[in-house]
Structure formats: C-alpha cells, structure tokens
Amino acid sequence: MSVADTIERAVDLAPLHAFVTDFGALLDTASHEHEILASGSALLERLIARDDWLPDAFAEPDPARYQQYLLHCDSRARFSVVSFVWGPGQQTPVHDHRVWGLVGVLRGSERVQRYATATDGTIEPVGAPALLVQGSVDAVSPRIGDIHRVANGQDDGVSVSIHVYGANIGAVARATYGDDGTEKPFISGYANRVLPNFWERSAAS
Ligand code: FE
Fold this sequence. Notes:
There is one protein chain. The chain is of the alpha+beta class and 205 residues long. Helices cover 20% and strands 32% of the residues. It has one domain: Jelly Rolls. The chain is built from three helices and ten strands. Helix 2 packs antiparallel against helix 3 (33-48). The site of fe (iii) ion has 4 residues, from strand 7.
C-alpha cells in the first residue's frame, strides 16, 4: 500500500465530496456573483463546521512558507477548492485574485488586511486588520474588493483554511503588490501533485 492510499483511507472524504457536488450544482443555477458568494458561503460554513475530513497530507505545514494544496478542481475549472496551511508567523504578500473567492477557517485563525488602489496608483490599507476565527467565512472579488494580505492569526500554532475560487486559481495570472503599489506578475501553483480520492467507494458497499 502506498503512502497516498494510507492517507486517503485515514479519513472519510464524504463531506468534501458533498461540498464539491453541491458547489457544482450551485454554479449550474446561480447567475450572479453575489448569489454564488452568499449560497457558497453557506456551503463552506457547513464544510468547515466539522474537522474530521481533511487528510493530514493536505494540512502539513512547511517551515519555509505557507502551503496551498489543491483539493479539487471542477472539470470545467468553474471553481477550485484549496487548503491553505499557515505555520507560526507565516503570511502572504499583498496580492489579488482576479476571480471571486471564499475563505473559510477550519483550524486556528487568520488575520486579513484589505487594500485598495489609491488614485495615485499606490496601495493603501482599507480599515483595520480583521481576525477570522474558526468557522468564519470571508469573500473577495474584483467587484467587492480583491486585494489583501492574509496571515496566520496564531503566533504559536498552525492554522488551516479552506478556500474556494471561481477558476483553477493555481493557474490564474494575477499579481502581488509592493509597498509602492507596483504589480508583480504571479501564478501561485500548488504544493501537491496528487489529490484526495473521494471517488473510492468500495469500503462503503
Ligand atoms: Fe488571497
């Protein structure tokens, strides 16, 4: 038995499978982004209300930087689901997404600072940093505010959040921002080469 088999059999992936099935059905019918964000938030809240379905391999921190593991990508890349894993003190650069996104905290907490582009082209903070606690969901998009910096809300522990985006986010050409507002092209990719296999059902029959 390979390591991947061992990992996949250790947890019940049914909640993740149900989530991606429900999210695909939502996108079959939703015609506006606000509908996707509102109904999608409710689906994500339900997924992160329990913490017994994420395989350890997709919650593994790296001492060097935060990790982003692809959990699922829709066959038409209408959405992707990603686990973000934050070690103590780790944070993203200021960055954008170019598509809608939902962020739900599964373990620990996240600190989010939003930014906007000022008239002179520089980047400036919008409001104070917000602390997202376990179970809460935040949203981004070019329509409602797309630029932010996300950090682990815990100084001494690992935090894990589940993100959903309106594209195969690891392949989207987007940007990070310097303090002077300069955009730097950025394609995030993913930390993993294999995905959770929630199609294996023989044990349930
Ligand atoms: Fe982000």
